[in-house]
Amino acid sequence: MRLTGLTVRALEELLDSRTRALAAAKWIYGPRAWSQELPTTVPGVAAAAWQTLRTRCTVTEVRIADQATASDGTIKFLIAVEGGAVESVMIPTARRSTICVSSQIGCTRSCVFCATATLGFGRNLRADEIVAQFLIARATAPAHSPAKNVVFMGMGEPMDNLDEVLTAVEILTQSPAPQLGQTQVTVSTSGVLPGMKRFLAEARCSLALSLNGSTDAQRLALMPQTKTWPIEALLGLLRDDRARHPNRVHFIEYVMFDGINDTDADAARVVELLRGVNARLNLIPHNAIAGSPLRASPRERIEGFHRVAAAGGLRTMIRWPRGQDIAAACGQLAQIRSGL
Ligand code: SAH
Asked: Model pTM greater than 0.90?
């Protein structure tokens, strides 16, 4: 058992008491500096019980191998884990910071526009390693902008590591700590249908689907798995979810590629596709990756697409990139190439 992978439920079993479990969770996940030293006593937990926990649990073998700060304050971490390294990002805004975590070393999917795909697949991360990334990055958030949001948009496909991702989500959103809001945690998927079904049934947080094309042909050229799970199957699932969870919002990510998926006709098709989905559309200019001819759509085109989508009644935001000068923006998380 690893310390940062313990839910309050698991702690309760270990410590044989709900009160002690809550006190232990408060210490493990509370806002302290990240440290792998286990103290001999913790407030509110009987010494003997804490000792049991210390002997039964090991700390997560993670450490910051390197870090870089971008001119906009975004910090990228290279986190060494057993058997490899992953990246996490702390993205500050005026009042709150967002932490972006990885769920796998490398990735199981082969999206042609993503730098992580070029690394191949290493292994799935455990829940404790995912939560540790959050704790490490949270400790660097500016005082005026505490880390309140977590997005699973780093390396990896969360639906291909769902057990661990669901445990990590349970920990992040549990009381008394870290106590993130359920709508403040978002898991992003390239569209793995069986995983999405289970996620929608079990997860208490938000889902983001990377749509990235307005037709199957377009999407297939960018995301080969479209052959197995076409757009309509993915969106059908989100439409059905509305009956069960009328208030749950689904984020739709749409990376914009120059001359590929960025016309007004594409925008109009996306509006049609998303009818009946409780959707918020996020437009993401593509971040160029080494060796790829793909380019971002020009600013005016992204704004034009935005106008058509908004006029069609879709709630749409443009996500201008953050941390670009340190290769921390979407799709650029490939530690070997980035030269951190
Ligand atoms: N595998 C998951 C999560 C990681 S990718 C997924 O696909 O959703 C997180 C987001 O970054 C996705 O929306 C993806 O489409 C986007 N992305 C990947 N590479 C990108 C790039 N080079 N430029 C801009 N966005 C990119």
From this structure: yes
